[in-house]
Specification:
Aspartate Aminotransferase, domain 1, binds pyridoxal-5'-phosphate, Aspartate Aminotransferase, domain 2, seven-stranded mixed beta sheet, 2 domains, alpha/beta, 42% helix
């Protein structure tokens, strides 16, 4: 069997080669193409009669993603096997490379998934932990992290401990959160599982500082007792500018169908070199040909783990996966820093407008250092379901957080305009 570029990645990954080098796929920003936010809005076929503040749920496909999906769908529909055999490997590799480039890491450390949920489940549920090991997580984390950790505990006997990071998101401080985690780490702690931007309150964690605490705690620990740091990154991915290494985490999961505006049903899971030693594949891969060819020869696969092995195999709606480069390409073309600043500006504007409405309590911290694109609030005397229904009556798309505290969320993004932010705040003013 010929040795492919992918096999070389695999060999490098198994040998523990330094894998932090980005493969250099950076795309130059198209000069001026998206300088006007109105032109960005035009890329999305969103119905103009509604204010879509729903980027935190599921995206509408921008033009380039839609075109790529249609191109691959046409190819697959005309000749499913021929198109897959001729193009499949290189298209999947291009998707993984685009994700890796965006994250600033080597593609061999990136698994392609269907969603954040799949990534978290794949990474946490099969971790090589056991009795006597503890996972530290928080009350503020989402159902997906809590449930994947429950599965891990049932499988391995590792215990899960949940702590509250703060009493009230509005009064929380970066230092307070970092100190709380520092004091709660115990000798038996082996995994810290957090969420970058909480989807109930919109609070953004100081992830890099927390990673510093983990590093301090690991400094005098043996290799096999190190603490690893896992992150549900979905509401920072596509909005915040830090890459995988700047955050300093070991496990990073995000869906590409929210703030990245990528194909629906796509996601990524990124794993550090150290994380790879503790993670175990769950679903047989179709991406790492060394595993398949070893099976073919009735031999054990080469030792080690990598992002290709962590990628669930089986045939997929490939036209979506293969449109990922266009989603990352659009972010590069608009400019990551510009997207971040614009999202923060609109969220700040919305928070200020809502705060001025009597009877409305904004729960998301004010500053961009502790918040991102999600704006969470409640209204005196009205349930969140009622508020969302009243907003829908006024053609504003908001959502209720699926948490016990069930706040109302509006999620402005680069698809929105200042006047839409004003419209959303005015709608709330009508019934608050
Ligand atoms: C924090 C968090 N994680 C995961 C998810 C699920 O994301 P996905 O649809 O990519 O699985 C959500 C909400 O949709 C969320 O708020």
């Amino acid at each position: 069997m010929p040795i492919t570029r992918r096999d070389l990645f695999m060999a490098a990954a198994s040998m523990g080669t330094a894998l932090a080098t980005p493969p250099g796929l950076h795309q130059a920003r198209a000069q001026g193409a998206y300088d006007d936010w109105g032109a960005v809005r035009e890329l999305f076929p969103l119905s103009p009669d509604k204010v879509h503040m729903s980027a935190m749920l599921i995206t509408s496909h921008p033009a380039s993603v839609r075109d790529a999906i249609e191109r691959h769908r046409g190819g697959l529909d005309a000749d499913p096997v021929g198109y897959l055999e001729t193009n499949g490997d290189k298209l999947t590799e291009a998707s993984r490379n685009a994700a890796a480039d965006y994250l600033g890491m080597h593609p061999a450390h990136v698994a392609l998934t269907d969603s954040t949920t799949m990534g978290i489940g794949l990474m946490y549920t099969s971790l090589g932990l056991g009795e006597g090991d503890e996972v530290l997580t928080t009350e503020e984390d989402y159902y997906v992290t809590h449930t994947a950790l429950d599965h891990l505990s049932q499988r391995t006997g590792a215990t899960i401990r949940r702590i509250a990071l703060f009493e009230d998101a509005r009064g929380a401080s970066r230092e307070g959160i970092v100190d709380r985690i520092r004091t709660e780490i115990r000798p038996e702690t082996r995994l810290l599982a957090l969420t970058w931007v909480h989807s109930n309150t919109g609070l953004k964690l100081p992830v890099a500082e927390v990673a510093g605490v983990v590093r301090e705690a690991n400094a005098d620990r043996d290799e096999d007792r190190q603490i690893l740091f896992g992150l549900d990154a979905v509401h920072g991915f596509g909005v915040e500018t830090e890459n995988f290494f700047e955050l300093g985490v070991d496990f990073y999961a995000a869906g590409c169908h929210k703030w990245l505006f990528g194909p629906r049903g796509t996601g990524i899971a990124a794993i550090s070199e150290r994380g790879m030693t503790l993670a175990r594949p769950t679903i047989p891969t179709f991406d790492d040909s060394t595993v398949f060819s070893a099976w073919y020869r009735r031999e054990a696969p080469p030792a080690g783990n990598n992002g290709l092995r962590m990628t669930p195999g089986g045939f997929k709606p490939f036209e979506h996966r293969w449109a990922l480069p266009e989603a990352f390409g659009l972010h590069d073309a608009i400019g990551r820093a510009r997207i971040s600043a614009r999202t923060h500006d609109l969220a700040t504007m919305l928070k200020e407008a809502l705060t001025s409405v009597q009877g409305v309590r904004v729960h998301t911290p004010t500053g961009p250092d502790m918040s991102s694109g999600i704006v969470a609030f409640d209204v005196d005397g009205r349930s969140s379901d009622e508020v969302v229904a009243l907003l829908r009556d006024r053609s504003i798309i908001a959502s209720v957080a699926p948490y016990p505290s069930a706040l109302v969320r509006l999620a402005p993004s680069i698809r929105n305009t200042e006047s839409e932010v004003e419209r959303a705040a005015s709608a709330v003013r009508e019934f608050a």
